């Protein structure tokens, strides 16, 4: 497998699993720390065998981070399907909708339907979460990948002129 | 978020961003009586990054020096980490340290973008 893809898969998988787990995923509330960490990890794996160079490979780091974010976002959307994470959040949202309705707010029926889990988690909820997770993870992990290159890049020692 | 994002819409926007920010109302800026969906520190990070993307192209000398010594970017994270660890931080310190931390980071995507444009096909 392509080294870039392999590094991104490992970094994304670890960040995605951690982000999808209850409690552990809350670390992301500190500025997407898990996704940024996934990007840094992916870049580290990609760069560890690269030779020292005069120019830091920022473009490569961005691509590896972006791929890690895409993988991570998908995994982070799948995990709560098995841990019941969506049901908990949906119940909280419906309760806050009820509270808003009591204060005179109009709640669009589409919102209620989206969070109604009586017949299982709705496809709309999963789709919205997938888009949201993938976008946020891709942005954060790309930044992580770039920061990873900035910190981990091995600079070529200057050669003495003859 | 502010109107028209009030009531159910505000709840929905907050829900969308809840995985990436704690959104504690006391630790968030308010706009027209509604807390933003990002805390002071996250708002600072977003603001600093946006500012950086807009301003770095106008500072070529400084940008070149920083991209030659990119590890300096880690130094700008120190105030944020110290502020995070302090009990007595304020909305201003949280916001400002967020701006300071992310402003230099904004240089990296610009450098990466320039690199990809200049050399789009690079062997992996």
Mean pLDDT of chain B: 86
Percent strand of chain B: under 5%
Terminal residue distance of chain B: 43 Å
Number of helices of chain B: 7
Summed over residues and divided by their number, the pLDDT of chain A gives a mean of: 87
SS class of chain B: mainly alpha
Question: Runs of chain B with pLDDT <50, length 5+?
Answer: none
Structural class of chain A: mainly alpha
> How many β-strands of chain B, per DSSP?
2
Q: H/E element string of chain B?
A: HEEHHHHHH
Shape of chain A: elongated
Folded structure, characterized:
The complex is a heterodimer of chains A (162) and B (124). Chain A is mostly helical. Chain A has one domain. Chain A contains six helices and no strands. The radius of gyration of chain A is 20 Å and the shape is elongated. Chain B folds into two domains: 38 residues, no CATH class; 85 residues. In chain B, 60% of the residues lie in helices and 3% in strands. Chain B has a two-stranded antiparallel sheet with strand order 1-2. The interface between A and B is large, with 43 and 32 residues.
List keywords for this structure.
heterodimer, A: 162 residues, mainly alpha, 6 helices, B: 124 residues, two-stranded antiparallel ribbon
Topology:
The complex is a heterodimer of chains A (162) and B (124).
Chain A: H1 3-20, H2 33-47, H3 58-83, H4 85-102, H5 109-115, H6 123-152
Helix pairs in contact in A: 1-2, 1-3, 2-3, 2-6, 3-6
Chain B: H1 8-17, E1 30-31, E2 34-35, H2 40-55, H3 60-68, H4 72-75, H5 78-85, H6 91-105, H7 107-118
Helix pairs in contact in B: 2-6, 5-6
Task: Write a brief caption for the model.
Chain A is an all-alpha fold.
